[in-house]
Design brief:
Chain lengths: 244, 290
């Protein structure tokens, strides 16, 4: 089949396109704050786009637009018909469409962040949508959450535990969370953050930079090996354990 | 191709349909649909109007799509001809069939003419674009390639559905049935989510509607494929047996006669659905795209 590069139905492989980073996690854990922090931290050195999957309204997209961390036109909101997990896992068509609209309008981009609607511990991104994914928890959900596991906690390329400043107030033991997360994640990295207190998430930004750099290195020469395999599984992305 | 039809009509087909309510979200918001009885009336009305129109357009699109496949098939079986033809054709020609770009655009314009609400046009094009994106990978076919090339921003959903049906090997009657089916099942599922209705009750409503789905699909199919006088099936766009003189690639398919009936396809309007769609866009909070 001849690819129509001028139409918007194509699903290009990993060559010559931005890395797609999924950010998921329960409601209120700080996904949108993390996206804003990443835009602030990475914006000066990377060409970015953001897709939000709001559960209701376009609150997250509006928050990001108001925050002034990114050109508002580079932020697209996707509606998910009451099923946020469906839109990132089972039927990713609308999200892919939004990602490609951003790439078409503003490309080439280095990184497109897809923020999921707040969901439960079982929600993960399809490999067809996200090349790498971050799962965001917060300490106020209790320090047992990492132990409970679930695909988000166990398989995400990076687990972020946010709102560490609240730990003493909610009686959460960060050491327990770190130990449990380590146990269920088989060596995949975990970062503890307090985005509000620190005014950003430099450790996460650094991790994302590494992933984007590695992606560029592997997919930068699109036409040299255009018939090669599609996007690599994110399991191959080099990771560094960098616990704060 | 009954199994292909099931796959195409399945709500699990990953083509973005789950995020569209077909007007139900706004109907729920304004109190027009509050329970199973209202929902049943809403679905009947939707089937008789938007459902019928969508089914006729889908059948017409499937008919056109099938002719594209018929034209391409002999060329595929004759690689030698294909190679020799490609040297003589234009830069974009690789020996495949002439792409009926103009016909797709005309049929898409017929869909536009039957969709007066801009919000509904937008929703229909978005759904069509997502369906073509998905179907293209599942059922690779010149049908979907030519449609995607003809309407890059996204064809109306019924056109995309008919094209996908042709690509999947379904006939126009099946395409019409898939259209009537999806015209009510999507909104019904949305109502279950929005109102917390008993899903079994709602499926009972759908089962009660099943005969009407069949009947509407038949009517739509007939409208899209009236008797063509002396024309026989062979008169559809059929390439010359020796692979030459099939058509000028710059012209729309000269052998395809189905377009003669397009202007007369059903055009049942549903002003209430139009208003719901427009007001839905203005609503501050919404879970569904449409």
């Amino acid at each position: 089949m001849g690819a129509h590069h001028d139409d918007r139905h194509d699903a290009p492989d990993g060559h010559d396109r931005a890395l797609r980073l999924g950010i998921g996690g329960p409601v209120g854990s700080g996904k949108t704050a993390l996206v804003a922090a990443l835009c602030r931290g990475l914006g000066p050195s990377m060409r970015l786009g953001v897709v939000t999957n709001d559960i209701y309204t376009t609150e997250d997209a509006d928050f990001l637009r108001r925050a002034g961390v990114l050109d508002p036109e580079r932020i697209l909101a996707v509606q998910t018909g009451c099923c946020p997990h469906t839109a990132i896992r089972d039927d990713i068509a609308a999200n892919l469409d939004a990602v490609e609209i951003l790439e078409e309008r503003f490309g080439p981009l280095d990184l497109v962040i897809v923020e999921s609607g707040g969901d439960n511990l079982t929600a993960t991104f399809s490999r067809g949508l996200a090349d790498a994914q971050i799962f965001v928890l917060d300490v106020s959900g209790g320090d047992k959450v990492p132990r409970k596991g679930g695909p988000g906690v166990t398989t995400a390329d990076l687990l972020v535990v946010n709102k560490t400043d609240l730990a003493p107030l909610v009686g959460a033991d960060l050491a327990v969370m770190a130990r449990d997360a380590q146990a269920v994640r088989e060596g995949r990295p975990v970062l503890f953050t307090s985005i509000r207190e620190d005014g950003g998430a430099p450790g996460v930004a650094e991790w994302v930079s590494g992933v984007v750099h590695s992606w560029r290195h592997r997919h930068g020469h699109a036409h040299d090996h255009a018939d090669g395999p599609g996007p690599d599984g994110s399991g191959e992305i080099p990771v560094t354990v960098d616990r704060a | 191709m009954d199994a292909a039809l099931l796959l195409l009509a399945d709500s699990r087909l990953p083509a973005g349909g789950h995020a569209h309510s077909g007007g139900v979200e706004e109907a729920v918001r304004v109190g027009a649909v509050t329970g199973p009885d209202d929902l049943a009336r809403f679905l009947r009305g939707r089937l008789a109007t938007a459902g019928l129109v969508a089914a006729a357009l889908a059948a017409a699109a499937c008919e056109l799509g099938s002719s594209v496949i018929d034209a391409a098939a002999p060329a595929r079986r004759r690689p030698a001809d294909l190679a020799s033809e490609s040297t003589g054709g234009g830069p974009e020609r690789t020996g495949g069939p002439p792409e009926p770009i103009a016909l797709w655009r005309r049929l898409d314009a017929e869909a536009d003419a039957r969709t007066s609400s801009p919000a509904q046009r937008e929703a229909a094009r978005t759904q069509g674009r997502l369906l073509v994106r998905t179907a293209r990978r599942i059922w690779p076919s010149p049908v979907l390639e030519t449609l995607a090339g003809a309407v890059p921003e996204g064809a109306h959903h019924p056109i995309a559905l008919g094209a996908a049906a042709a690509a999947a090997g379904c006939d126009p009657g099946q395409a019409a049935l898939a259209a009537t089916y999806s015209s009510v099942t999507g909104p019904a599922t949305a109502a279950v989510r929005l109102l917390g209705l008993d899903p079994v009750t709602v499926h009972r409503l759908l089962a009660d509607l099943a005969p009407s789905l069949d009947e509407t699909a038949r009517a739509a199919h007939t409208a899209a494929r009236p008797e063509r006088g002396a024309a026989d099936p062979e008169s559809r766009w059929t390439p010359h047996p020796d692979g030459e003189g099939t058509a000028d690639p710059d012209l729309a398919d000269p052998g395809f006669a189905g377009d003669a009936w397009w202007a007369a396809l059903p055009a049942a309007a549903a002003p209430a659905l139009d208003l719901l769609a427009e007001n839905h866009l203005k609503a501050g909070t919404r879970l569904f795209v449409s």
